[in-house]
Amino acid sequence: GDSVTQMEGPVTLSEEAFLTINCTYTATGYPSLFWYVQYPGEGLQLLLKATKADDKGSNKGFEATYRKETTSFHLEKGSVQVSDSAVYFCARRYSSASKIIFGSGTRLSIRP
Amino acid sequence: EPEVTQTPSHQVTQMGQEVILRCVPISNHLYFYWYRQILGQKVEFLVSFYNNEISEKSEIFDDQFSVERPDGSNFTLKIRSTKLEDSAMYFCASMGTESYEQYFGPGTRLTVT
Predict the structure, then answer these.
(1) Which of A22, A23, A24, A49 is nearest to A35 (CA)?
(2) How far apart are CA A56 and CA A65, in angstroms?
(3) Does residue B82 surpass a pLDDT of 70?
């Protein structure tokens, strides 16, 4: 069935390192794609989104581009900070009001 | 900035007991959702609610679960007879038509003993 697959964690990086968290999806049609972030002890926050092919979502230095040809939506950041330590979830949604399907999450730890 | 709130933040209950998890969505939102996250696992959809009725539900949302919007502000999830495997973090979300973005609450951690 339709799913979202993201790279397993944990991912540990040094501050100022380049970050990539891979995400691919299987789906019929053209879902909207999202990255959510969950900081320790908190709920889910929308980090960025893209609603159609070749769209680039960006926020707080993070970026992800909706690639239809590779069915991917990889999250990138050029220089991570300790405060970026969190769990990141890739997700998709088919229509405006429909449920969100989440990937399994990737725990990111940034060391000073 | 408006936010979704949930109470309680942590609920401990014994197996077989009924629990009600409460959510206050953002005031002008029309779409409401419940998700859950078993510790260390992915976030899973439970149910969506619109216009005073369930619009979609997952396989998890069986007869032991129910949702209600008893007044203009609250949205509740009831589990009639809790099981050990219901232990999870339960997230409420609401969405309005201005952005069609789901806003999540901070979650209620349910522990069934």
Answers:
(1) A49
(2) 4
(3) yes
